[in-house]
Design goal:
Layout lengths: L1 H16 L16 E5 L3 H12 L4 E2 L8 E17 L5 E16 L4 E15 L5 H35 L1
Parallel strand pairs: 1-2, 1-3
Antiparallel strand pairs: 3-4, 4-5
Length: about 160
């Protein structure tokens, strides 16, 4: 029994020493543990909340509780047909998104001026499996917004770490 405990303890120590962290977890800067988000789609808000929770941060419901305020402008997704079938239906669809964000600290000082983020993804639209395509589009949108969240956190980290020096 003592050996099992030692083995488990050793494995845990090795995993933490190598920098292992849960998938989706980010290394949040000190000034970004409590974030208030203004605007943005429900999908973006959901993905941002999930990313913060997995990284020991939180999306707060009031500006007063926030370390930083993330303002989202023009959160838009556009559907485009890239190719058509002989019947005139879309065979390939592109989802193109655009949003702009601004990061402000608790003192209302601008940390990141209004900055654009563009993202896009194409997928094949199988006319024989229409129901699954709706689900696939939802999954693709979530993945696209996860990438947007990574981009915003990365840009915020570089600004906040530069300020801390």
């Amino acid at each position: 029994m003592q050996r099992k405990k030692s083995f488990v303890l050793t494995v845990i120590m090795l995993l933490t020493a190598c920098g292992y962290h849960l998938r989706g977890a980010y290394d949040l800067p000190k000034g970004m543990k409590n974030v208030y988000m203004e605007g943005g789609s429900s999908t973006l808000r959901e993905q941002f909340d999930s990313a913060l929770k997995s990284s020991s941060g939180q999306l707060v419901d009031s500006r007063d509780k926030a370390d930083v305020v993330l303002r989202i402008f023009q959160d838009e997704i556009e559907h485009r047909s890239l190719s058509l079938s002989a019947r005139g239906r879309s065979n390939e669809i592109e989802l193109a998104g655009h949003l702009e964000f601004q990061l402000v600290n608790a003192k209302h000082e601008t940390l990141i001026a209004r900055e654009p983020v563009d993202f896009r993804r194409a997928y094949f639209n199988d006319q024989q499996d229409v129901i699954a395509k709706g689900n696939e589009e939802t999954v693709i949108l979530k993945e696209m917004y996860q990438q947007v969240v990574r981009t915003i956190i990365s840009r915020a980290r570089s600004v906040l770490e530069t300020q801390g020096k």
